[in-house]
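User: Predict DNA-binding transcriptional regulator, PucR family's structure from this.
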Amino acid sequence: MSTEDAGERDTGTQDHVCAATLRRLERASGGLAGASITAMEQRLPWFQRLPADQRASVQLVTQTGVSNFVAWMQDSSQSIRLTAEAFRNAPRDLSRWVSLRQTLELVRVAIDVFEQQLPELAEKEHERFVLLEAILRYTREIAFAAATSYAAAAESRGAWDARLEALVVDGIVRGDAEESLLSRAAALGWDPASEATVLVGNAPSDDPPTVVYQVRSKAARIGCPVLLGVQGSRLVVVFGGTGDDRHNDEIALGLTEAFGEGPVVAGPSMPSLADAHRSAADAMSALRSVVAWPTAPRPVPSADLLPERALAGDPEAERQLVERIVLPLVDAGGALMETVDTYLEVGGVLENCARQLYVHPNTVRYRLRRVAELTGRTPSNARDAHVLRVGLAVGRLAKARGLW
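Assistant:
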C-alpha cells in the first residue's frame, strides 16, 4: 500500500491515527494485555486469591478487549459489537465469582496501564492525545458492556428463580411432599426450620411481575420470608412463621394488603415446609366455601370456615368438626351435649333451656362455660352457635355411618 493510499485511509477514520501507529498497536496488544494482568495482580489483593482457571478467564477477556481496541481504532462504528464480544467470549459463570464492582476495578487498572503505555506507540506527536482520548471512550463502552452483561445475567437468574419458585408453590398446592420440593425451596433461600403458612386469594393485577413486586415489597417491610405463585387470577403466598400464633396472625394481616379484592384465606401454620401442603389444602377448600359466609373477616382462618366446608362436602372439615366439637363433649359426659343442643334449639334463651332440662339457670350457665372451654366456641355468640350446630349435625351423621 502506498503512502498516499494510507493517508487516504487515515482521513477516513474518526480518530485520525496513521497506519504505522495501528501496526504498533497490533504488535503491542499482547504486551498491553500482559501488563494489565500484572498490574491487576499487584494492585488487587482479591484478584491474587482467585484460582488459576478464573484468573485465566479474566486474562482471556482482557486480551480480547485489547485486540478489539485495535480493531475499534480502525473502525469505531464497531464499538458496541466489539465490546459486547469481549464479554460474550467470557465463561458463562464469570459473573458468579467476579462481581460488577470488581469488574469495574479491573477496567480501571487496565485504563491506567493503557494511559501509561499507549502514548509511546504513537507515530506522530498529536496521535498521543488521540490515543488517550480513544482509550477513555473505548473503556467507557467496556464499562457499559460489563454492566449490560451483568444485568442480563441477573435477569436470567431472576427468571430461573421465578420459575423454580412457581414449581415449589405449585407442588405445595398439589400436595407434593417430595424431597425435591424441599431442596428447591432451600435453593431459593427458605429456612428448613421455619414454619409455613399458606395464604390464598385474588391476585391484585393481571401482570404477574407486578404482583410479585407488590408481595415481596410488603414481605420485606414485614420482615418475613415468602414463596409465592400466581395461578391465573389466584395468588398463593407461603410465608415463614416464628412459632408465635399472634405474630403469625400479624404477618398474615400485613400480607393480605398485597392481595386483590375479595376474600383471603389463611391455612393453619405447619411446623415445616414439608407439611405446607396440608395448610394449602385447608386454605383452598376454605376459599371455595367462603362465599357462604359473606361477612367473613379478611383474612379468615380456614378453621373458621369448617361449617361451610363441611356443607360443601369437604371430608377433612367434617373430620375436624367431629374432633373439635363432638368428641370433647362426648368425653365430658352426655349432659354437656344435651345442654348445648337444647340451648341452640330454644334460640339461645337460657331460662327456656333450663326449663326444658329441669335444671337451674346457673347450671346451664356453668355447662355452657364448660362447652366453651372444651370446644373454643361460645354458644351465646352467633357465629360460634352456627359452628356448634353444624358440628353436632355432622357428628350425628358420622356416628350413623359408624365413623366414631
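The chain has a mean pLDDT of 83.
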